[in-house]
Specification:
By secondary structure, this protein is of the alpha/beta class. The chain has 2 domains: about 180 residues, Rossmann fold; about 90 residues, N-(1-d-carboxylethyl)-l-norvaline Dehydrogenase, domain 2, CATH 1.10.1040. About 45% of the residues lie in helices and about 15% in strands. The strands form 2 sheets. Strands 3-2-1-4-5-6-7-8 form an 8-stranded mixed sheet, with helices on both faces. Helix 7 packs across helix 9 and helix 7 crosses helix 10. The chain is globular and about 55 Å long.
């Protein structure tokens, strides 16, 4: 097996996956068609390794070597054929993901994966010639800090692909769980339900966001409250997931009007600097 991993999409999750993979000695090709986004991704990767060195988590020579293992390319055609793993990490829209996966399959990866957090693997596999090689690899943000990897097995996923997905998770330093295919899987279905209800509580004036979050961190020992987590994940991402789950499970996953209005206003959480909290340089104020 060659040690090459392709990531398609240089947003928050794609950059995180590329960072962890390169740190674990994969040669990484990060595919991003938008030139400005590609430049931002390169800068974010450099900054992340610089922070790791400054914090004493990564020796400087290891950071330099890891950075050298990442190549940012402008198209799938510029990526090498037959990678060990190809992970699609574009925005959470089924039509976009199907189109990207259909094109990515032409590179003939041994394992083809989607980082979807809610869309059915069966539905995405409909675009593929080899659905037996396809799984969900649902990483969590920030990828370098969150240990969980949700391995989502579709009805056509082979035993070999399942085993390889678990091995990839181990190599990346993750703690993988296996979930059978269903919209929202295990984590998004539960987490979004809690997050949407917390947003409705803000909408109804039940309590301030900080107090709602403290209720869950102090009363239920959640490491992060549902509203702060929504800011970290991104309100736009939460909205896309809610819409997907509503189509699958009905109105109990209907997006609150407050969530839709905040996204429309560009209040996306940590990445925009404003959500339920104010963020400066990635730190909640």
């Amino acid at each position: 097996m060659t040690d090459r991993l392709v990531v398609v999409g240089a947003g928050t999750m794609g950059v995180g996956i590329a960072y962890v993979a390169a740190s674990r000695r994969y040669d990484v090709e990060l595919v991003e068609t938008d030139a400005d986004q590609a430049r931002r991704a390169t800068r974010r990767l450099r900054d992340r390794w610089d922070k790791a060195v400054a914090a004493g988590r990564t020796p400087a020579e290891e950071a330099v070597a890891a950075r050298g293992r990442v190549r940012v390319v402008e198209s799938l055609d510029a990526a090498g054929r037959e990678p060990s793993v190809l992970v699609e990490a574009v925005p959470e829209r089924a039509d976009l993901k199907r189109a990207v996966l259909g094109s990515a399959e032409r590179l003939e990866p041994r394992l083809l994966a989607s980082n979807t957090s809610s869309i059915s693997i069966r539905a995405l596999a409909a675009a593929l010639d080899r659905p037996d090689r396809f799984v969900g690899l649902h990483f969590f943000n920030p990828v370098w800090a969150m240990p969980l990897l949700e391995v989502v097995v579709g009805p056509s996923t082979s035993g070999e692909a399942r085993a390889m997905a678990l091995a990839v998770g181990d190599r990346l330093g993750k703690d993988p769980i296996v979930v059978n295919d269903a919209p929202g899987f295990a984590t998004s279905r539960l987490g979004v339900a809690l997050g949407l209800e917390a947003i409705r509580m803000v909408e109804d004036g039940v309590a301030a966001p900080a107090d709602i979050d403290r209720a869950m961190t102090l009363g239920y020992r959640h490491p992060t409250g549902p509203l702060e987590l929504t800011d970290i994940v991104g309100l736009d991402v939460r909205l896309d997931i809610a819409r997907t789950l509503r189509s699958a499970y009905g109105d109990r996953f209907a997006p609150p009007a407050l969530l839709e209005s905040m996204v429309a206003d560009g209040r996306l959480g940590k990445k925009s600097g404003h959500g339920f909290y104010t963020w400066t340089d990635g730190v909640e104020q």
